[in-house]
Design goal:
Blueprint lengths: L2 H11 L6 H20 L2 E6 L7 E2 L9 E6 L2 E4 L3 H4 L2 E3 L5 E3 L11 E6 L9 E10 L2 E4 L9 E8 L2 E8 L2 E3 L8 E4 L13 E9 L13 H14 L3 H24 L14
Helix pairs in contact: 1-4, 2-4, 4-5
């Protein structure tokens, strides 16, 4: 189910004053809960030490998300980190400190960690002045990613526009390292631009994400958002009803996850992503 379908359904059931951004924040809470407590998909990344002999943790990898380390064929589980002197240091950049005496022939370590749910990116830029050409536009910050769908509404070269475009890439042109060029559908602005033209527009990233649980269980998202609306509107009887259904669907989803979990051999994980 698409996230926007969840929000539109909840809004029809309970007309409310809360913004789409607030409802997406509620959905982010649920996504984080499902990803960390129920779905539990693990990934692996190989790290090499920096000049200080420490390992820079990848973005989003925290002490709580780490499951274990592998050094060659040797596995160190997190509960044994203290025994081996492994430390995790929080800072501007999180770091793993691993004593060199646990290595043999290599200084590469593999970090096994729990994949977190990605937050849904809400991007609304109002009344911005941009320079357009036929295939894209220039912007002073990197806010859009490939596969984003962006609604552009306003005027370009004096002509009104209300158009959805697909982002293919965003990069710093060689001629200017301070302004990003966002490349979209080929010829997307050919009706508005001959060479280049300024435009005064609003940019909105369309929310195209789906729920992270499959069909059959995704109604829990509707129950969750409805429960949130009822809670903040102090309609506690309705809140309790929605949370009862939500908890049953969450329990059913947990049973589904357990039934389809990969088999483990002596607690050794196989088939790293």
């Amino acid at each position: 189910m698409y996230i926007m379908d969840v929000i539109e359904t909840a809004d029809r059931l309970y007309p409310n004053e809360y913004t789409t951004a607030e409802k997406i924040r509620w959905i982010d809470e649920l996504n984080a809960k499902i990803a960390s407590e129920y779905r539990k998909i693990y990934k692996a990344v190989d790290l090499r030490p920096d000049s200080a002999g420490e390992y820079l943790a990848p973005e989003g990898v925290t002490w709580e998300s780490i499951h274990s380390l592998r050094v060659g064929a040797r596995e160190i589980k997190k509960e044994d980190f203290a025994t081996f002197g492994v430390k995790f240091v929080y800072g501007v950049k999180n770091r793993l400190c691993v004593p060199t005496n646990i290595f043999r022939a290599t200084d590469v370590i593999r970090v096994i960690y729990l994949e977190a749910a990605e937050e849904i990116r809400v991007i609304n830029l109002d009344d911005v002045t941009l320079t357009f050409d036929e295939n894209g536009f220039y912007i002073d910050k990197e806010v859009f990613l490939p596969l984003d769908v962006v609604n552009i509404k306003g005027t370009i070269g004096g002509t009104e526009i209300d158009k959805n475009v697909n982002v293919f890439r965003s990069y710093l042109p060689e001629v200017d390292s301070t302004v990003y060029y966002v490349e979209v559908d080929e010829g997307a602005f050919s009706d508005y631009v001959e060479d280049s033209a300024e435009g005064e527009v609003s940019l909105r990233r369309l929310i195209t994400e789906k729920t992270i649980c499959p069909t059959g269980y995704d109604d829990m998202y509707i129950q969750w958002v409805c429960a949130k609306i009822c809670y903040w509107q102090k309609a506690f009887d309705s809140y309790n009803q929605h949370m009862t259904v939500f908890n049953q669907l969450l329990s059913d989803y947990w049973h589904y996850v357990l039934q389809n979990a990969p088999e483990r051999d002596n607690d050794k994980w196989r088939g790293w992503i």
